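User: I've been trying to design a sequence by hand for this structure and keep getting stuck. Would you show me what you'd pick, starting by listing the structure so we're on the same page?

Assistant: Good idea, let's start from the same input. This is the structure you sent:
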């Protein structure tokens, strides 16, 4: 499959959020990545349901919602109702991960599982056949603009290998420090969804950066 680009609205200009979403609508982006942080699972706090509903009101592309929160099961229906098309939870935050993934699917959303940089890929072995997406964090979650962790390439290859026999259609998504300098190598390793925040929104020409990310590796 051709790889997808999912710009992270966490780094958008919130004073002009409607214009930022309309810019993404007109871009070559495939999804819009929405990072939800609770100040407990990660040190930062981002936004909740009212902002997601506002984004959904104008978005013409699927909302790729990434929950960096403790006990996400409490809110799955609420995120679906707010406009999530895909919901990704952290393996580290879920006591009964199979049940959480099953519930996300019952809600009609794409089900994803994320792992932090220190979490070994082997822990995904019992869930990888049941999910639509694995998100490999390439920075420690919680803040934008962090330095990309080089071990990510190895982890992507491991996820790819683990999924080969049981889930060949798996989305392998990378989040953190993704830009034009590493996009091609990420795709080469096996990634097929690139989340980019600062690389897009801090650029003087976000549309061009998104276009270049879409062309990376081709």
């Amino acid at each position: 499959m051709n790889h997808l680009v999912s710009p992270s609205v966490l780094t958008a200009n919130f004073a002009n959020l409607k214009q930022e979403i309309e810019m993404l609508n007109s871009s070559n982006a495939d999804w819009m990545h929405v990072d939800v942080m609770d100040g407990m699972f990660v040190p930062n706090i981002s936004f909740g349901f009212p902002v997601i509903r506002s984004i959904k009101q104008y978005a013409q592309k699927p909302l790729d919602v990434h929950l960096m929160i403790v006990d996400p099961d409490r809110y799955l229906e609420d995120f679906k109702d707010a406009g999530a098309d895909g919901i990704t939870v952290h393996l580290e935050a879920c006591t009964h991960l199979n049940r959480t993934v099953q519930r996300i699917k019952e809600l009609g959303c794409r089900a994803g599982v994320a792992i932090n940089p220190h979490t070994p890929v082997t822990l995904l072995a019992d869930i990888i056949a049941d999910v639509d997406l694995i998100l490999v964090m390439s920075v420690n979650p919680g803040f934008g603009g962090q330095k990309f962790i080089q071990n990510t390439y190895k982890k992507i290859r491991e996820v790819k290998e683990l999924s080969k026999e049981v889930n060949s259609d798996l989305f392998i998504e990378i989040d953190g420090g993704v830009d034009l300098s590493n996009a091609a190598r990420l795709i080469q390793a096996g990634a097929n969804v690139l989340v980019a925040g600062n690389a897009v929104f801090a650029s003087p020409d976000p549309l061009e950066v998104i276009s270049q990310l879409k062309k990376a590796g081709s």
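That's my pick for every position. To get oriented when you compare it with your attempt: The domain at 4-215 is CATH 3.20.20.70 (TIM Barrel). Residues 14 and 71 are 27 Å apart (CA to CA).
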